[in-house]
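SUBJECT: A protein chain and its fold
Encoding: whole-number codes for local backbone shapes
RECORD BEGINS BELOW THIS LINE
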Amino acid sequence: MARGKLKFITGEPAALLPGRIVVIADLHLGAEYEMRKAGLAIPSQTARLLESTLELGKNARARKIIILGDVKHMVPGLTFQEKREVPHFLNALNREFDVEVVLGNHDGGIERLVPKIKFHPSSGILVGDVYLSHGHTNPSTGFLRASHVLVGHNHPLIEFRDRLGYVWRERVWVRAELDVKAVQKFGSIDGRAGPNVPLPELIVMPAYNDISGGRPLNSPEDDKVFMGPLARAAKSKDAKIYLLDGTYLGRLSAL
């Protein structure tokens, strides 16, 4: 990742951009409400997630934290839990770091809850030479000037099975090349910095909230590997898969 000097934070579902900017995605605060309706007695995770995010920011000496969408969980609307806990989480985080949010498909109405927080449109933003988007909508043409494109939305997992049939899943990072023909569906690709400049590399972020579920990319039952326009424009079979600790698992087609 020479261009842009974007880094994965080892052991964390988070990236570090130049300028001490930490990026995370898919908090899904309030997901426990839906789980409780399904009969799972899971207490609120917001305090735990706030503590871990504050620690993450301090350990990374962050100046700013950008959240790539899906801060809250319920779609559509807002639960009572979200109305109480989302402002508490974002305001507490904002007291320690500058906090910005790129809106996700679960974030309807969130701007009214925390007017002090800076929100960006779901199409995404260019920060230096890294383009940030939740990933559920088409990007603006600015993404073509980036060295890397970071998206969330997918909650990527890899499924493991041992000889005894035990199954477990791990959150992963995905790095993939974009397909030129697929990208042309978004419009002209002449917005690149030059005709010989390659398309940006796509990085699909793991979900920050470890109980928010996910998609096992190597599951034979799921033939639609990625969700969202940018992720579906990737050369998915050749995608490189990494665990949070940095372990390279190989290309997706081999897993």
